[in-house]
Design a protein that fits this description.
- The N and C termini lie far apart (49 Å).
- The chain is built from 2 helices and 6 strands.
- The chain is globular.
- The longest helix has 15 residues, at 81-95.
- It has 96 residues and is α+β, with helices and mostly antiparallel strands.
């Protein structure tokens, strides 16, 4: 599995290249950097808080495994139900 933190421009390059080989898959997770990074594709600086993509390129022989949350903060819509349910519970408690 190949993993990269990429700027928007490099993310688009990866999207255009993927799929040339049978069984090749890409997973892109959008979020903001947790610290300063350099784009793995073009070496542009990515200061903390920059919106980026965590790109995973994988096949059946080199399967995907989660890693993104160690490097980026996902946008709230992609964080799953647990934070949303906690937020709703707080809202309900405040109303009572």
């Amino acid at each position: 599995m190949k993993r990269e933190i990429t700027c928007a421009k490099c993310t688009e390059r990866w999207r255009a290249m993927v799929g040339k080989y049978p069984g090749e898959e890409i997973k892109l997770v959008e979020g903001s950097t947790l610290k300063d990074f350099i784009c793995d594709g073009c070496a542009v600086p990515l200061p903390k808080g920059t919106t980026v993509h965590a790109m995973s390129l994988y096949t059946e022989r080199t399967p995907y495994f989660p890693w993104e949350d160690d490097f980026i903060a996902r946008e709230p819509a992609f964080r799953g139900l647990r934070p949303l349910l906690k937020e709703r519970a707080k809202d309900n408690d405040a109303k009572e």
